[in-house]
Write a structure and sequence with these properties.
single chain, Rossmann fold, 30 helices, 19 strands, globular, binds (S)-3-Hydroxyhexanoyl-CoA
Length: 709
């Protein structure tokens, strides 16, 4: 018997257990082992019913994404095919009960739906998240799910990729019973009950009662497409999956399955699948730090003190209470604290309106935040996060004060987005406890945290910061201590190039449109307005490295700040903002740009969207290559994770470094070298880009061992 699948018989019920840690993925050997165990139990005269259950923390979390990745890169042998297994489960004469806990996702839910019945523990979740990997369910999931829950619900689950809770699964017909108490015992009892029912056990594939008609389904498909276009912009799989659900409702089961498989295979081979699978592993790989092994001891955190109740501090406080921590929110005046608590209440109010939280849950969270003037009580904090103004002198003063009150063993973190961690740590008597936690605004929403390692930062402190990011539901990426760390350092050449394009003849609107059509969540000028133009202005003054770009100084941004145009908060920046906060082009800005260009003797021309994208995105890539070479990022994939989670880079393009790999480094290098000749020093190709391009290598290949095609 395969060790991945075990069977035992308890009181005439065969309990088949899948044991493939960590998440019982359907890796090679699991489907075969499961099919053999089902076959044996069906043949065994002493068995009346079967229960399939997952060992460890979950039922099956889906196909093995490693195999999927190999298939995406051209290895057809790795393409998972579960048809034989599903048929064997569904066609057997004895009832098969799928017992779900943890998460039944993707191929896991597909296996579960081939069973005759499903039972689940109340905190189990079920979903078809395949679209997040650029594919659709490929093991008859679209066909069975549509039959079990109906077209509307199937569309919702498959297009959004979001799992549903067990209670919702029960209500929609996906699950037959919830089991309180021990799952195996409850599932076996349920199986015995079903075994005495007359007739053959029900087959999902024979059901037609929820399939609707062409007329009743047409508006549902239209709504599904609208939802996909709105919420999953430019993604191919969410639209593709609607085609498979249409097939489920309009074709006989076998034909529907064939159609689903065709679409699945097409999606697996797509560029988007390669990128999204890269994103999946890149995110998980980011937590691996070579000299900080997984078993590094971490410090316990229950109470978090946050110094600074501004927008950032308030967002971090929300993220912290959402994760179950107690929070002390510190500022220098009652007024500042009231404003901070006001921001927090306002944000939670809108979550209640959007039904994300109940009013009771919000009240409980807010009650866990203790606003406080001064550092009294700060000695109780296990972690202190400084979130004051971006100014070195102020940060040093705050750290000296924190050092005086924080208990031994507390982690001291700074939320600086650009400043030198070592200098900040030197203001304390315990630099080994100091780490950067660079949250992104709004901190209660954005998933990225750059964890900045100073020269003295201790390994347990890094491990604690990594664990904290996970507990906060965020993705932590370790970066080195250089100006701007990784994300913001790359942002400057990208942003400046956009500003030069505007001085050279484009408009902010044209640049932003080119970038958003290419896939960026927002245009760079809209981002600058949202962050506040004074932020970059201050950085330009604080850090000489960012004052210009290889000799050329942007002309317009400073003038906008001097004119009081600080972005959204003042109602105008690169754009004009009305009540609706939508950016409107502003003639005044265009005049200012034209004047600045004329004074500097710049000849203004025209640009295609392609030129705009190349100048901005390639600036990002070239800087990324320098960062990689300097060791500020551990791997190219980490840079990808940072850009996809913190800067609105489209995940379906896999991040800037993965995108560069796919375009081909020789082509990127040739273009960068041409820009170098045309525009001078700021475009000097990164030596690493040059080397890899010459050797025919890629940024990401070494990391995942994949063969770029
Ligand atoms: C599919 O099923 C296609 C079918 O329709 C077609 C069939 C023909 N495979 O996330 P975590 C690893 S597509 C391989 O940190 P958590 C993960 O890399 C699949 N490995 O844990 C990590 O490894 P490491 C549809 C997987 O508790 C470790 O497990 N299914 C897989 O925060 C822990 O992961 C999905 O898309 C996998 N399927 O969350 C589900 N899943 O420790 C994807 C995880 O070496 N998975 N690993 O870094 C998830 O959403 C989360 O992992 C899960 C656990 C919620 C399960």
């Amino acid at each position: 018997m395969s060790e991945l699948v075990r069977s035992s018989i308890v009181d005439r019920v065969a309990v088949i257990e899948i044991d493939n840690p960590p998440v019982n993925a359907l890796s090679a050997g699991v489907p075969e082992g499961l099919a053999a165990a089902v076959e044996r139990a069906q043949q065994d005269a002493s068995v009346r019913a079967l229960v399939v259950v997952g060992a460890g923390r979950t039922f099956i979390a889906g196909a093995d994404i490693n195999e999927l990745e190999r298939a995406a890169w051209g290895d057809d042998h790795a393409l998972p095919d579960l048809h034989g297994l599903l048929q064997r489960i569904e066609d057997g004469p004895k009832p098969v009960v799928m017992a779900l806990h943890g998460t039944a996702l993707g191929g896991g839910l597909e296996v579960a739906m081939a069973g005759h019945y499903r039972v689940a523990v109340p905190d189990a979740r079920m979903g078809q998240p395949e679209v997040n990997l650029g594919i659709i369910p490929g093991a008859e999931g679209t066909q069975r799910l549509t039959r079990l829950v109906g077209v509307e619900k199937a569309l919702d689950m498959c297009v959004s990729g979001k799992p549903i809770a067990a209670a919702e699964a029960l209500e929609s017909g996906l699950v037959d019973r919830l089991i309180e108490g021990d799952l195996r015992t409850g599932a076996a009892a349920f199986a015995r009950e079903m075994a005495v029912r007359r007739g053959a056990p029900p087959k999902t594939r024979e059901r037609t009662d929820k399939l609707g008609t062409a007329v009743s389904n047409a508006p549902l498909y239209a709504a599904g497409r609208e939802l996909a276009a709105k919420t999953r912009r430019r993604l191919e799989a969410p639209l593709a999956v609607i085609g498979a659900i249409e097939a489920a409702a309009s074709l006989p089961f076998e034909e529907g399955c064939r159609r689903e498989r065709e679409i699945f295979v097409e999606c697996v081979r797509s560029e988007q699948c390669k990128a999204l699978v890269h994103a999946f592993f890149a995110e998980r790989g980011a937590s691996r730090v070579p000299d900080v092994p997984k078993d590094t001891p971490t410090r316990d955190i229950a109470t978090v003190a946050i110094v600074g109740a501004g927008t950032m501090g308030a967002g971090i406080a929300m993220a912290s209470v959402n994760a179950g921590f107690r929070v002390i929110l510190i500022d220098t005046t009652e007024r500042a604290l009231e404003a901070g608590m006001g921001t927090i209440r306002h944000n939670y109010d809108s979550s209640v309106k959007r039904r994300r939280f109940t009013p009771e849950a919000v009240a409980e969270r807010v009650a866990r935040i203790r606003p406080q003037v001064g550092y009294g009580g700060c000695e109780a904090a296990d972690l202190v996060i400084e979130a004051v103004f971006e100014n070195m002198a102020l940060k040093k003063q705050v750290f000296a004060e924190i050092d005086a009150v924080a208990k031994p063993g507390a982690v001291l973190a700074t939320n600086t987005s650009t400043l030198n961690i070592d200098e900040i740590a030197a203001a304390t008597s315990r630099p080994e406890s100091v780490v950067g936690l660079h949250f992104f605004s709004p901190a209660n929403v954005m998933r990225l945290v750059e964890i900045v390692r100073g020269r003295a930062t201790g390994r347990p402190v890094i491990a604690t910061a990594m664990a904290l990011a996970k507990r906060l539901g965020k993705v932590g990426v370790l970066v080195g201590n250089g100006p701007g760390f990784v994300g913001n350092r790359m942002m400057f050449p990208y942003m400046y190039e956009a500003q030069f394009l505007v001085e050279d003849g484009a408009t902010p609107e044209q640049v932003d449109r080119a970038l958003t059509s290419w896939g960026m969540a927002m245009g760079i000028f809209a981002v600058d307005d949202m962050a506040g133009l004074d932020v970059a202005w201050r950085v330009r003054r604080e850090l000489r490295q960012f004052a210009d770009a290889g000799g050329r100084r942007p002309l317009v941004a400073d003038r906008l700040v001097e004119a009081g145009r600080l972005g959204q908060k003042t109602g105008k920046g690169w754009y004009l903002y009305g009540e609706d906060r939508k950016p409107q082009p502003d003639r005044e800005v265009i005049d200012l740009i034209e004047r600045a260009a004329a004074e500097a003797g710049i000849h203004r021309g025209r640009f295609t969207d392609e030129e705009i994208v190349e100048r901005t995105i390639y600036a990002l890539i070239n800087e990324g290559a320098k960062i990689l070479e300097e060791g500020l990022a551990l791997r190219a994939a980490d840079i990808d994770v940072i850009y996809m989670n913190g800067y609105g880079f489209p995940a379906w393009r896999g991040g800037p470094m993965f995108y560069a790999d796919r375009v081909g480094l020789p082509a990127i290098h040739a273009k960068v070298a041409a820009f170098h000749r045309e525009f001078g020093d700021r475009w000097a190709p990164a030596p690493l880009l040059e080397t890899l391009a010459t050797q025919g290598k890629t940024f990401n290949a070494a990391e995942r061992g994949q063969t770029p095609s």
